[in-house]
């Protein structure tokens, strides 16, 4: 058994359920508003989710050091941007910082899920967390494009605030296609198409595979094994 395997045994059971809870809470916060306090709270929850994901996935030393830099750098960037920069610039810098945090969290979770030998409910919670992270991450990408792109981001002249961008991202990710919000530029449209593709591949491969493996494991448990588990 390698040192990495021993570390993972010490950190198990995987606490991805807590990561999922934090992500759902941040989603609700973004629905409720887009003020400075909300953005700071969301940034703090993303950072906590990243720390928990690292503890649960036990990545290698290089990735762990990189995550430490990300946590400190993102926290400083978000606070300075929200306190010192104008509204539009602060939103853009915060989107950049949050995108890096979410990408790091996604890498840590996938690093654990792809090497797991046994599928558990907590690992399925990790897969669902990764799916939510994809939607939130693309919302930040859209925010960065809206910050850098001249002219309106949406065809309808809807303000590209956090609520609208998150709504647009998850509608795209789930391929609902309401059509009420549409990106104006090629960058936004291309990124939206990429998100829809990533979302479908993610559902059809990782989550579907993990759920089917978990169900197959439950069917393979014999009555005698169930009795031993109860004792």
Features:
231 residues, mainly alpha, transport, membrane, ion transport
What does this molecule look like?
With 231 residues, the chain is an all-alpha fold. The protein is 79% helix and 0% strand. It contains nine helices and no strands. It has helices spanning 3-11, 16-32, 36-57, 61-84, 87-113, 121-148, 162-173, 186-220, 223-230. Helix 3 (36-57) packs parallel to helix 5, helix 5 packs antiparallel against helix 6 (121-148) and helix 6 runs antiparallel to helix 8 (186-220). The longest helix has 35 residues, at 186-220. The chain is globular. Mean pLDDT is 83; it is low at 5-12 and 222-231. InterPro entries: K_chnl_dom. It comes from Cellulomonas edaphi. Residues 145-214 form the Potassium channel domain.
How many domains, in number, for the residues?
Answer: 1
Q: How many angstroms does the end-to-end distance come to?
A: 29 Å
The total of helices stands at 9
From the spread of the alpha carbons, the general shape counts as: globular
Question: Helicity level, as a percent range?
Answer: over 70%
List the uncertain runs. Answer: 5-12, 222-231
- Approximately how much beta-strand content do the residues carry? under 5%
Arithmetic mean of pLDDT: 83
What string gives the helices and strands in order? HHHHHHHHH
What Rg do the Cα atoms give? Answer: 19 Å
- Count of individual beta strands: 0
* Classification by helices and strands: mainly alpha
- Please describe the biggest sheet, giving its number of strands, its sense, and whether it closes into a barrel: none
């Amino acid at each position: 058994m390698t040192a990495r395997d021993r570390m993972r045994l010490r950190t198990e059971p995987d606490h991805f359920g807590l990561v999922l809870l934090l992500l759902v809470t941040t989603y609700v916060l973004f629905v409720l508003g887009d003020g400075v306090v909300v953005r700071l709270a969301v940034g703090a929850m993303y950072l906590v989710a990243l720390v928990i994901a690292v503890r649960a996935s036990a990545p290698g030393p290089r990735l762990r050091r990189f995550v430490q830099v990300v946590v400190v750098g993102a926290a400083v960037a978000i606070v300075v941007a929200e306190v010192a920069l104008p509204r539009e610039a602060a939103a853009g810098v915060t989107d950049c910082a949050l995108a890096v945090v979410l990408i790091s969290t996604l890498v840590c979770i996938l690093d654990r899920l792809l090497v797991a030998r046994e599928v558990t409910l907590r690992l399925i919670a990790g897969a669902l967390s990764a799916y939510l992270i994809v939607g939130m991450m693309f919302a930040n990408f859209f925010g960065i494009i809206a910050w850098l792109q001249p002219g309106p981001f949406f065809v309808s002249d809807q303000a590209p605030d956090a609520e609208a961008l998150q709504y647009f991202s998850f509608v795209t990710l789930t391929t609902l296609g309401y059509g009420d919000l549409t990106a104006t530029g090629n960058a936004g449209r291309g990124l939206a198409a990429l998100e829809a593709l990533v979302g479908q591949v993610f559902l059809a491969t990782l989550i579907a595979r993990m759920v089917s493996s978990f169900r197959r494991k439950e069917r393979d448990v014999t009555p005698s094994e169930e009795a031993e588990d109860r004792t």
